[in-house]
Amino acid sequence: MTLLAQARVTLQTAQAPFRFDVEDDGQRLTCDFTVLDSLACALSHFELSTAALATKTPDDLKRLGEKLSARLTYLLEPINPIEFDAEQCVVQLRSNPPDRDEDRTSYYELVAKRGGSLSLCRYVKTPGNVRETVPMHLTREVFFRLVGDFSAAAA
Predict the structure, then answer these.
(1) What pTM value is reported for the model?
(2) How far apart are CA 4 and CA 76, in angstroms?
(3) Contact predicate 41/35, CB 8 Å
(4) What share of the chain is helix, strand, coil (3-state, %, to 5)?
(5) Residue 13 parent element (H or E)
């Protein structure tokens, strides 16, 4: 059963908080749900691991970052590549522009590592403080799209 099919089946009966941890065809998806209801969910962690990324060249990872940036247009803010480390073979994407109000900045951060993982987190930074991870609030449909897009991009 594909990662997407497993996600659809699991979310029919699951109750938060819970860890979603499934595998299919060399890919492993791990998500930590903090809230789950009939329309939406909140995740503190979303990561897809696969050996297929282990052999990617720096240019391959750069293209992967660009591909994900073009696909993930349905998040709260658009994400774009902001940093590429050819030596460590890591691509970092962030919300551009981030969500800002008078006392905080919120943004998504996606990290693609040649070691074999794609991860997505939501952060909040307040003036004078370090950033902290906060749950991502997504509709179920957006969650399912993320599963499909990450799985396709990492293949």
Answers:
(1) 0.90
(2) 22
(3) yes
(4) 30, 45, 25
(5) helix 3-13
How many C-beta atoms lie closer than 10 Å to residue 88's C-beta? 11
Secondary structure E strands in 18-125: 18-24, 27-36, 40-50, 79-85, 90-95, 99-101, 104-113, 117-125
Look up residue 98 and give its DSSP letter.
P
pLDDT recorded at residue 124: 95
Find how far residue 12's CA is from the centre of its chain: 21
What would the pLDDT profile of 79-125 be if each residue is shown by its tens digit? Answer: 999 988 888 888 999 999 999 988 899 999 999 988 889 999 999 99
Token representation of residue 131: 């950033």
b/e per residue 15-28 (b: at least 16 CB within 10 A): eeeeebebeeeebb
Distance CA 153, CA 30 (A): 16
